[in-house]
Amino acid sequence: MVADDEQPEPADVDADSILEGAGFDADKSVLTRRQAEVLALRERGLRQSDIADRLGTSRANVSSVEASARDNVERARETVAFAEALSAPVRVEIEAGTDLYDAPKRVYDACDEAGVKVNQTAPELMKAIGDRAGDAVHGREVRSRLFVTVGADGQIRVRRP
After folding, report:
1. 77 CB contacts (<8 Å, ≥6 apart)?
2. What pLDDT does 81 receive?
3. 99 strand-pairing partners
4. Among its keywords, does the record have Lipoprotein (predicted)?
5. Which ranges of 8-141 does DSSP label H, i.e. alpha helix?
């Protein structure tokens, strides 16, 4: 994204080229072409009002399209994470109220049982879980239920249901 003080000229940004260069295919995407176009222009630093002028619509409409697009992207990410969790050889539920310091042992035990190697130390694993859990972890307290999955390659994923 372009910094606010470095706004590109709207005429200098070609949405079609951006979408083509990123390999956008509306038939295979969870985004409509308009949603993809708005996101592409916003990621290039254009203001919603500039996009509205370009598309011949209102800024409020562009805002709505952008919000829907970002929601669709988040839903797609969650769907992929869910599908990966289903196929992961290691799945560990970390209940709300758990001390984050207890999580690595639970993950290591599950990995040992499944024959999966994790290439992270306990402190690295705690940090990864804390970072990826967002506000579900505060200090050492797990405040919301989490699922930690480990792929056959040792890759850690953290999801909130």
Report:
1. none
2. 82
3. 141
4. no
5. 15-21, 33-43, 48-55, 59-87, 103-114, 122-133
Cα–Cα distance, 122 to 61 (Å, whole number): 48
Under 8 Å between Cβ of 62 and 38 = yes
| CA separation, residue 78 to residues 21, 26, 103, 159, 161 (Å) | 25, 20, 22, 8, 9
Structure tokens at 1: 């994204």
Q: From CA 133, how far away is CA 129, in angstroms rounded?
A: 6
Q: What is the pLDDT of residues 110-136, one digit of tens each?
A: 999 999 999 899 999 999 999 999 999
Place of tokens 């690595």: 104
Distance CA(77)–CA(85), nearest Å, equals: 12
pLDDT surpassing 80 at residue 10: no
Cα–Cα distance measured from residue 35 to residue 119, given in angstroms and rounded to the nearest whole number: 39
Structural element, H or E, at residue 137:
strand 137-138
Euclidean distance between CA atoms 23 and 131, whole angstroms: 30
Can you give the pLDDT at residue 8? Answer: 56
Q: Which two tokens stand for residue 116?
A: 């999966």
